[in-house]
Amino acid sequence: LAFLSAGHTPNRGEYGENVDRAVKFLLKSVQANGYINIPEGSGHGPMYGHGFATLFLAEVYGMTNQPEIREKLDRAVKLIINSQNKEGGWRYHPIKNDADVSVTVCQIMALRAARNSGMHVPKETVEACIKYVQNCQNTDGGFKYQLIQGSESQFPRSAAGLVALYNSGVYEGKNIEKSLEYLRRFRPGMNNNLRLYEQHYFYGHYYAVQGMWLTGGKDWLEWYPAIQQELMKFQQANGCWEDQFSPQYGTAMACIILQMPNCYLPIFQR
């Protein structure tokens, strides 16, 4: 996704070969039922990996119309649709059990990208996931982790919640207004308690910059220069960004965030 965000597509651009290799790897990893699960890389919450892999394949397919992608992408999308639980969300594994807002947002992004590329996503699937995300919103505008938990709002999943609403077709109303009101408190450079190495920092800002880009206006004009300045300050001498999970993850996320104005990815287009 970081390469795509810079305009590199399979075998086109300086890193086109890298993108092509990633596509081939993921296509080989698609199981008969559509599940994209790489055991050595998804020990905790493999539906995260499935969602991001499906998002990536959908973006590549939308850009290139490669026929070899469509059939396996269709299977991956159907697995998401068929594993949605009765609350309207998803959890760590493709079974209709419980759900959490974080995994759910990941699947919503994949479904939106797939629909943008011409794949069918049932209306009832979209309506159910909108309801789930809205039900996870707390009175302060942020989002709780699960419906069964009365947990407090946190910046990372609240940024994800806003983007989920936008990508589900909810562009205005009290849910959007309250969400923005909550998130504005976490703009980089403000006196808040969010620090670079806090858990899920890059995850939170990956979604936050999307949310502010889709919101536009003053929110975007204030947010992007602030996160750009903050990220550039913490870049390492070798070009990477350190993260508690891995520098590869932190660097990829930072590159996606910084390249948001390029708007090369269809999922990021207003």
Mean pLDDT: 94
* Largest sheet descriptor: none
Low-confidence stretches: none
Order of helices and strands: HHHHHHHHHHH
CATH class: Mainly Alpha
Q: What is the CATH topology descriptor?
A: Glycosyltransferase
Helix content: 55-70%
Name some characteristics of this structure.
Glycosyltransferase, mainly alpha, 270 residues
Summarize the structure.
With 270 residues, this protein is mainly alpha-helical. It is built from 11 helices and no strands. The longest helix is centred in the first third of the chain and has 19 residues, at 46-64.
Give an overview in words:
- The protein has 270 residues and is mostly helical.
- The protein has one domain (2-268): Glycosyltransferase.
- The protein contains eleven helices and no strands.
- The protein starts with a helix and ends in a 12-residue tail after the last helix.
- The mean pLDDT is 94.
